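Recall that a protein's primary structure is simply its ordered list of amino acids. Everything else, from secondary elements to tertiary packing, is in principle encoded there. The following example makes that idea concrete.
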Amino acid sequence: MDFNTTLQESESNPRYEEYNISLRDDADLGFKQRFIYHCVEHDIPEEYAQLFVDFLQEEQQNILDNASKISEKILRERWGNRYRACVNRAKQAVIALDRQLEGRLIPFFEEGYGNHPVLIEMLAFIGSTMEEDSIAMPVKGFHADKAMSTEEFLTKVVFK
């Protein structure tokens, strides 16, 4: 029997419908359904399930918070007194790339998923290339491999 069929059968189970746990607003609905199914099937009391979910969410947040701190430590060691300038270049790249991705990149970083030091180094490199006289960035109406002068970049991308 496959999981989806079993889940549908479980959803008709009154215990499943009465089972209530709270998750963060951004939590995956599919996870919640699968977790409730598992708890109902194994007779796990609702209050224990909620304690477990609270623990997992707190741990997930701790992991994201620590990843940011660890990444900062690594980059401060690697970049030394250039740390602030490199971070600013990375931010510049994120803003420019976010425009190209129609606003989908900044939420990714706001959720804490952009904390890997290599990703930040790559963005700092991209940001530093944006400071040079020409840049190759995809823009509507231009080929991705066509280099633009700073003036073209500013008029076509930044101030469009």
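The longest helix spans residues 46-79. The chain is about 70% helix and 0% strand.
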